[in-house]
Design brief:
By secondary structure, this protein is of the alpha+beta class. It folds into three domains: 160 residues, Reeler domain (Immunoglobulin-like), CATH 2.60.40.4060; 171 residues, Immunoglobulin-like (Sandwich); 244 residues, Four Helix Bundle (Hemerythrin (Met), subunit A) (Up-down Bundle), CATH 1.20.120. Helices cover 33% and strands 26% of the residues. Strands 1, 3, 5, 6, 8, 9, 11, 12 and 13 form a nine-stranded mixed β-sheet that branches. Strands 19, 20, 21, 22, 25, 26 and 27 form a seven-stranded antiparallel β-sheet that branches. Strand 23 and strand 24 form a beta hairpin. It is a multi-pass membrane protein. Its cofactor is heme b. Keywords: Electron transport, Glycoprotein, Iron, Membrane, Signal, Transmembrane, Transmembrane helix, Transport.
Amino acid sequence: MTIQFFTCVLCITTWFPYILAFSSGAPKYACKFIQPGHGNRSADPSPFNIKVYADSISPGSQVEVNISSTDTNVLIMGVLAQAMSIQQNKYVGSFVAMPKTKMACDENTGITHRQRLLVPNLNLVWNAPPNLSQGDSIIFNVTIVQNIQIYWQGVESTPVLVDLSAPAVAIPDSTTQAASAWQPIIGMGFTQNPNCGSTTACFHDCKNGQCTFSVEWKHNGDKIEFVMMAITNGERQRWISVGFSKDTKMGDDVVFECVTEGDKVQVHMSHNEGKANRRQNDASSGISSISGSYANGLIKCSFIKDETVQPEKGFTLSEEYHLMFAEGEALDGSLLPHSFDVLPLVTNHKVDLRLIGNVGGDKPTFPLVKTHGILMTLSWLVLSSIGMIMSRYGKPLWPNTSPFGIKIWFHIHRTSMLLTVGLTILALLLILIEAQGFSQIPEQPGKMYRQIHPVIGFMIVILTIANPIMALFRPTGESSNRFIFNWCHRGVGFTAFIMAVVAVFIGFDLGKSGAPASVFPVLIIYIIYHIIFIVAMELLPFIIKKKQGQKQEYSMNDLNLTASDGSAKSLDSEKKEKLNEEYKYRMMLLIVHFIVVTLLSLTLIILLLIG
């Protein structure tokens, strides 16, 4: 009976948050507290943006509001949105009813979901009340649920002023309809042009006739007619571009941009200089017949490029190029850097623009980056771990065996750490070649930690080289300063190991690594296992002591380095017999450790290779 009781309690406790999770939207009492009845409020900075597409609000007008996630790994599961009047100090107005939503709160001032959304962004339409006052401000306050355990409360927009002189604006039906779809734009697509490969050359990612981007062109004498289109995340200010490169990397590339500027879509020609994009003079670009549109997340533009008119950085039809497609967020007509998570798609071979072709875009591969990650995984998650663990816990083993006059534990420790030094330096050289110098990782909201990866990497290399140099000046075992060396040597090694694990974590999160999300659970298991193993090894002597009922008297100091230093030889047979049990468990745990760290690291390497 007791077992059944505790089982029920455990089940209720475990499932309690799920029972209180309202997939049908926020209950009415949630409006009072502006929070759901489940999960915990996150104290982290919100990964969501609230954008209001209006400079001012007039009574009776309609306003479009966009809620979007800045992190591709974070989706919106549910919302509760309201609009606050600063002067009246209360929620006012109402939202346009749409599928998957329902009105909420007193006087229907709020809107919430009727079922789980799981979308990266949402568009809402708000109706301003007729009784707004001049000088008032409206703030949109949104509680966003990421999952049943985490939500962000009070995510606010910037205040929008009330202007009684402004005309009342109604959102067009097409915009309202687009907002009411409430569908994730990720995964949506448009129909492929049936003329691709026959009368029109195309560069696209189409599968089964559905595309998320397409670049089409026709060669006509000295001119090329281009049509570009792509599905975006639905934000108002976006850009798409096609680049023409002599290799598969960004740098020294000619780029044609299709970018939103206010209510229009414009086309510009630019040039990639290293990792920076420089826009060229439109008057000398040779671009004409520009047209474009942006609706329902689909941005499209067409233009004609005259090859006889070339700016300082141009391209010629007589050369072949790798084509690159990229997209990102714009700001007042200027291009912001593309996402570092979704890298530009690149043709796997050079394309002759004068020929009719039908080429697909592949995700670029970075073999040097993958090799760098593999070397760092082997050197730190395997070799360094084995070397440090053997130094800490392997000294009492094999007390009477000293190949070449040196203890076995020291052979393993030294070999592992020297291999770590060599592989780390090799990994550094590879990434310097790939990045052509110090790696520059662009800023990205919610991913700022990525920028410390190269800094941590250089610090690891410095500590890795410093430690064996320190070992050359190791005092003798009888020196009174030996303990200073011991603490410094261990401290530097342990610090480098911790930093390396952090660097591996961040490295796998970088887009160029191509690592799948499944590597992170493996890394977490690796860390948890290490903690459990160290605790077990530290407690082992006390467990054996309690079991034997007497104190263990073997030495765990650095005098076990050589055969002549070892104190284990002086132990009499009776003491050795009492130590046998601990040695047996110690040996068994060390073997298990070697196997576990090797298997986990091999799993990471395999995932990295196939990712």
